[in-house]
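Structure tokens please, single chain.
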Amino acid sequence: MLPAFLAIGVVLVSFPLVAGFWGRLHPALDSMAHFRLHLAVLIALMAAPLLFVKGWRQIGAAGAVLGIATLSATLLPVQATAGSARAGEADAPAARYRLLQLNLRYDNATPKQVFSLIGRTKPDIVTLNEVSGMWVKELKFLEATYPYRVVCPPPARIGGVAILSRRPFADPQAFACYDRGSMAVATVRLGADAVEIGALHLGWPWPFEQHHQVSRVAPVLERFPQTAILAGDLNATPWSVTAHRVAAAGEMDLMPGIGPTWMKPVVPEALRRLVGLPIDNVFTKGRIVPLTVERLEDVGSDHLPVLLEFGIQPTSQPDEVIEVKLARNGR
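Here you go.
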């Protein structure tokens, strides 16, 4: 009876796996897409034994091909894009900056681990999610190091979002909170450049409000200037329709290669990095040059911190310089 049970399992798992590719039709289908890699591995594992059982090989082959094709279609473009980014690092601007993204977890019992991590990594900018009432008080300890900040009022028990910066804001009023504290925006001065920084925390996927929340914050993203970074816990994977809607609204590029960042704390950290969900994401736009991105160690949250190192391309391009010289020569 084992081959029959495996074959039934292959057929049943194939339905949500394939449905996830049709997420644009309905948010319910996009919810299935978040578990695409897990479903692909599961269907491949169930199908593999059927390849060696007479009478069940066709189902085994179909399941194995579906699982492997899904993994390849999802992971290979990400690896290729990450490889291209590393190849271009040699031409990166000399000035480098750091942004740390972290979902604090509203009831984190180890805030000192968070402060220790920030002290060691010394990010220029910190974007935070689940800034609960407890965390609003705790973050006061960082005021001397990060005096420029916007902390959105917690809309619920799990808290709002926040942006902390070592670097000054471009204008004392150059920050705002949106969508009941789930999104913060601030314009930070990095050298001679003004960079728009966004912190975003989306709700859970369908049947919860994630789909409608993206519609609410889309007008804010559409107003992002040409040089910007958005970071946050999307509660959505990079290949989901939700992530693509966020990127499209702000005309931004999704940073590849971050990897799984969320899993229940009961799961060992080494396993979380392998089987967790990649729902903490970073988007860049315009002259931002992503250099490296890495997941850091556990600091008591159910999310891993994400550290982005980046540069900023200068505004003057060779063509512009040539045009200026020609104009001065009267040509």
